[in-house]
Amino acid sequence: MIHNDEVMIAVAPNGARKTQQDHPQLPINPKEIAHAAAACVDAGACMLHLHVRDENLRHSLDAQHYKEAIQTIRLEVGEDLIIQITTEAVGIYNREQQIQTVHEVRPEAVSLAIREISPVGVDEKISAEFFSFLQRERIAPQYILYDKEDILHFNELLERGIVPDEHVSVLLVLGRYAENQQSDSADLAPLLSFLPDVQHWSLCAFGASEADCMLEAIQRGGHCRVGFENNLLMANGSKAENNAALVKAVSDGATSLDRKIASADAARKLLGMS
To answer: Could you tell me if residue 149 is inside a domain?
Structure first.
């Protein structure tokens, strides 16, 4: 694994399912997301993992919703955050619709669950063409891997050239399918043992052990994604005041381990975006 001195911290402030009944500071509309984004930049975030909702507050991959949200966030934070859109299906969208959204939005960065965008047994020509499009358009992909099977499938796609081997960035996920969606930092090492020698790997973790899992990732040379999408609690079990509080906790933890915090510009260089 490549060990970078600078830690990239991404924030996932809302996700596809939670509402303000879950937390009153969970941002839903573009203005709320932009306000949260600015606070998270101050706390140490260099990337925003963006979900948008439709008029009925349901998960949406609508290109116009994305464009409006991105414009609103940019007015608030300028270029101080990488804005990464999600292609998460949430049982609503098929992979053709997911790919079409990226073609229409042309975002700076995008997250792609391998099990959704290029699952075993699908037409790999479509996958290869899409990944090549991202490379040509300089859209930075982050490949989401949930378990050993995802990692092994991703390894095969990488070895066969379906996934380009330039600036490969992956996100490992802990706790998504665990009991009560509670993560365990001890589950990271087994996943890393199957991961190929990619340029960058990050971690997100469900539940109140998020902070412990992030410290484990930082100590192992990884990067972090935190936020209300996966967790609403601080390490002591109290409810976080807002997304920025979760970001700051990770930033403070990284600093205590002598890892620098990457700015958006530094992260763009690390990810080959500039």
So the answer is: yes
Residue 1: inside a domain: no
Domain that holds residue 156: 6-269
Cβ neighbourhood burial of 21 (10 Å; 0-12, 13-18, 19+): exposed
Question: How long a stretch of residues is the chain?
Answer: 274
Residue 274: inside a domain, yes or no? no
For residues 8 and 192, give the distance between their C-alpha atoms in angstroms, rounded to a whole number.
18
- Asked if residue 113 lies in contact with residue 146, where contact means CB atoms within 8 angstroms, the answer is yes
Dmax (CA) of the chain: 48
pLDDT digits (tens, 9 = 90+) for 203-240: 999 998 999 999 999 999 999 999 999 999 999 999 99
Cα–Cα distance, 92 to 117 (Å, whole number): 14
The CATH number for 191's domain is 3.20.20.70
Structure tokens at 193: 């043992």
Instruction: State pTM to two decimals.
Output: 0.96
Closest CA to 10 of 265, 202, 147, 259: 202
Contact 210, 240 (CB under 8 A): no
Q: To the nearest whole percent, how much of the chain has pLDDT over 70?
A: 97
Find, among 162, 174, 184, 188, the residue nearest to 1 by Cα. Answer: 188
In sequence order, the 6+-apart residues with CB closer than 8 A to the CB of 249 are 211, 226, 234, 235
Q: Which residue did the predictor score with more confidence, 99 or 181? A: 99
